[in-house]
Design goal:
Helix content: over 70%
Shape: globular
Number of helices: 9
Strand order of the largest sheet: 1-2
Radius of gyration: 19 Å
Structural class: mainly alpha
Number of strands: 2
Amino acid sequence: MAALVLLSYALTRLVVLPTIFTEFSVLGLLVRFEIDTQFVMLSLAAGLTSAGAAWLMQSHPQARTQQSTFEHWVMPWLATLGLGAILARVPLGVGLGIGLALAAGLLIAVLVAEYIVFDPADPRYAVAALGLRILAYLLLSGALFAVRAVGMRAVYGVPIVMLCSSAVAWRLLRLGLPGVRVWQYALLIGLVTAELAWGLHYWPITAIKLAMVLGLATYLGEGFIIAHQKEGITRSKTLEFAILTVLSLIVIVFAT
């Protein structure tokens, strides 16, 4: 499956499909959509990854008939889209070859982690869950970096930021709070992150700094909600998040 996804990445540089344009006006704002080769190939790759992840989870020894595996599709889907968008900006050469190898490794790592955490009783669950969290924020930052790097207009970029942030928050909240309905919390995190993205869109800030700030906002939102659900927001927990925020912002401002 990873090989097929990489093939779709390569085909975006070899196959040329007719570009379809459509535009309409909303409240006096002209909205224009462009469906090109990259959009089609990345959409197909994401669909392939989601179907493959579903098949992989259904093959798990602990899988039950008719059991929903939707939550295990989210990270592979985001990985496929985010990595594909970044690689599309890499010129032909050695860098692209290295990028394809790294993309394959990250995609396989996400699928392996999702497969392990499918069974909470698996002795490798804690390590896999930690790895999945790290991969989730790494891929989220990559996707947010790509949104900024391509110079996307705010009317397109902000909804994508909201979608990616909400999806990652939902998956990680499901991982940290099993059995709890978390979609409303994930949506709230996505809205806050989107508002922040909208405000920073017009600032002279680099793509990597913006991605790290928005990733930090998603992380803090997820952490606060998990802490609130499990033990409540204590003074020590608030101080911990405050120190983490200050240190992270210092690193973002001065080290990137």
